[in-house]
Write a sequence for this structure.
């Protein structure tokens, strides 16, 4: 809840720690969007590997399912980025912007993993467009999509684990 001076109301949570509703929402949105992106990437990786052979199922998966999941992943990527900035700012404000070396290292690693995920997503968009235009054999496109999605899922899982570590820092 916003107060008349523009700040947000904080309440005391378990253990007497201050809890800000807006920041808590940003944190949960961050985790939910990242979880979606990872799970959708796993879906593309498994689906691409399972239907990678020539056939109607593989073509339908690559031309109908993958573009929709990629679009949802792009939205999740934007939410992860925006809420990540909010979360970093909030952590900085709590620490008066004096971050420990471990915090900085973890944050840099998470940023690097985000870049890997975003690059894999952009390449997945390109591969899905190629699938729609028949620029390469279907089995090769399915394998590329599966590999890109697996890379995004692995990077995202690593980023989530680092996020848990970061939360305790």
């Amino acid at each position: 809840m916003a107060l008349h001076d523009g700040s947000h109301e904080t309440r005391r949570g378990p253990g007497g720690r201050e809890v800000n509703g807006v920041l808590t929402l940003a944190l949960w949105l961050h985790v939910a969007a990242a979880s979606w992106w990872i799970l959708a990437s796993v879906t593309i990786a498994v689906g691409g590997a399972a239907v990678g052979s020539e056939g109607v199922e593989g073509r339908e998966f690559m031309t109908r399912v993958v573009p929709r999941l990629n679009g949802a992943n792009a939205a999740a990527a934007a939410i992860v980025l925006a809420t990540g900035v909010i979360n970093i700012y909030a952590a900085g404000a709590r620490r008066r912007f004096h971050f420990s070396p471990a915090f900085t290292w973890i944050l840099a690693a998470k940023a690097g993993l985000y870049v890997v995920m975003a690059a894999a997503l952009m390449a997945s968009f390109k591969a899905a467009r190629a699938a729609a235009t028949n620029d390469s054999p279907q089995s090769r496109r399915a394998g590329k999509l599966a590999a890109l999605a697996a890379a995004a899922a692995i990077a995202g899982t690593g980023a989530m684990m680092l996020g848990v570590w970061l939360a305790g820092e």
Q: What stands out?
A: The first strand starts at residue 10 and ends at 12. Residues 22-168 form one domain.
